[in-house]
Amino acid sequence: MHMNIPACYSFAIASLAPLQLRSAATAFRLVSYPSPRVVPTSLRPSVCVGNNNSLISNNSPATSLRMMSYWNRETCQPTSQYKGEITKEARILALCDPHDAYNKPLYDGPLPEGSKLLAVGSTLADFDNESIINQDPNVIFVSHPNARGPLVELLNKFPSVEWVHTRSAGVDFIASDGLFSSPVQLTNAKGMFSSTLAEYCMMACAYFAKDLPRLMRQKNDVNWEQYPVLEIRGATLGVVGFGDIGRSSAKLAKAYGMKVLGLKRSIPESFSDPYCDEIYDMKGLVELVQKSDYILIATPLTEQTRGLISKEVLQQCKKTAVIINVGRGPIIDEEALIEALTNGDIKGAGLDVMTVEPLPKDSQLWKLDNVLLSPHNMDMTLSFMQESTEFFINENLPRFVRGIELLNPVDKSAGY
């Protein structure tokens, strides 16, 4: 099933200059974030004093470009629109690397009224002492990459936990039956990393369209040899997983003059999006890849999406198609992908995620000239990672202590 999206919006951005494109991307980044208002950097205070009297610079590049809507860092109090009775305390365990600089706002504070950080650690042993146990922790903040096992142990150890928040958008790295079957609420950083991954998507398109590997070889060989290149304008981008990342990528693709096809698990009857020309449900995957010149994988990893891009699906791609994966490695059958790349069944692949990470040194992907590899770091901007921590502190903690619905709830039945 698929739907054609009426052209009900008029755009004058297909021929934007690079600076204008950058502005368009920045604007989308701001409006895509859950915060309903944006405050210019010039209006933000320079510093706030943390819990240990350290200074947190709010004008450094590592700090959020916008002030969170419910927390005034100048007064260290909720804004007037969000003052309300505190009904409970947030007693937080941080399942994190204690040296993680991105979590500095959590470690150093200040934290909203009614919130306190009890301990930071990466194993159960780091939290297993009487002073912590007696305080009945009820919130766990997660950013450690190997958190699944320790999180299960913490949930078993502390039945008082009501809420788990992960600094990442994906929750597959902490997914477990114990977490998903429990009444514990789970929230994530959905939307925080959309714009930087959209930039990577367009970079990968240009990498293959302009044949950047050849350019680099010719430069190294001191070889002036002109050759024809492809346009991105007029090409079709198929987006498997038309969520925050997919839509952000589609917006940039439209600025380049591309046609965009989207795929969603379910399509609301009222679906209409100015950045999507046609929308498909899961049954339309083969049709989408058959029509696409560039195929962006931006869906979360669930049992339903594991191996979604199979050998059979890859065989339906154009020989000139490029696969771009910013979702999770296991969504693609990696052996089938290597075979397709080796045999010339598809043109190339841009991979920021792999089935096994770090990518083993003996993987054939390292040796293929038609593969663009990055070490799962295309969302690893200093500002976004810290903003993700600030989102937990400045948006959801004030809500939690007041009994207000949290932002970015994860549908545990769907896995994202």
Q: Quote the beta fraction.
A: 5-15%
Describe the biggest sheet?
Answer: 8 strands, mixed
Strand order of the largest sheet: 1-11-10-9-12-13-14-15
Average pLDDT number: 85
The total count of strands amounts to 15
Shape assignment: elongated
Rg measurement, Å: 23 Å
Structural description of this entry:
The chain has 416 residues and is α/β, with parallel strands linked by helices. The protein contains twelve helices and 15 strands. Strands 1-11-10-9-12-13-14-15 form an eight-stranded mixed beta sheet, sandwiched between helices. Strands 5-4-6-7-8 form a five-stranded parallel beta sheet, with helices on one face. A two-stranded antiparallel sheet has the order 2-3. It starts with a strand and ends in a 15-residue tail after the last helix. Mean pLDDT is 85; it is low at 6-69.
